[in-house]
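Most newcomers find our protein records easier to grasp once they have seen one. Sequence and backbone structure share a record, each on its own labelled line. Nothing more is needed to start thinking about how sequence determines fold. As an example, a complete record with its sequence and its structure tokens follows.
=====
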Amino acid sequence: MTVDARTHGARNANRQQGLPEQVASYVRERIFSGEVKPGEFLRMEPICEAVGVSNTPVREGMQLLRSEGFVQMVPRRGFIVASFTRRDIRDLFWAQAQLAGELAARAASNISPEQLARLDQIMAENKEAVAAGDNQRITDLGHEFHRQINLAADSHRLALLLGSVVKHLPNRFYATIEQQVDATVNEHPQLVEALRTRNTRAARSMMKKHIATTADHLIAKLEEQGMWSAETAK
């Protein structure tokens, strides 16, 4: 086997390994966006079509979601969306806030002028995206903003732990929540100022508050969409 053939084979293997996670990510987004609700069945065929994969990665992705508590399997019938509460959402965001807050504090000690300049650029681009109503661009820039802070923290293991929590949370539709977009525009500059002045305490506190606020906005959005009934809400 040639080097090119081995490289091509490795790429295909990596892609195959990533397909179940792509499926899981797609279904998580549908759950958290309220497109599918607790107790509803998740049909395999539409998921295959939406993600562009065969049945096998979809089954593997659903098993991954089952291990995370997002879906349940009904024998001989398939998978249904598992029930979850406001507390479940707040718990996920609490874990994210603790890790992200510590990373922000470490970034305040380590961040370079070049990294600060990159954050300033991201914020400027985000204002343009908000003005243009470009939700995908807003989402991408939000992800890049936090990624840059995590890189500046120079704490690889802690960032990996954060990543394992964040993958359980939705991403794509944050930009459709008006309050979340407003919070990002207002709070990101304050966070960057804390980083610029190397104020570790303020950076930690602001990041934790920023993420906790995100949880409140998401819960409010799901309530509007009828995610919980008065009898089952907690």
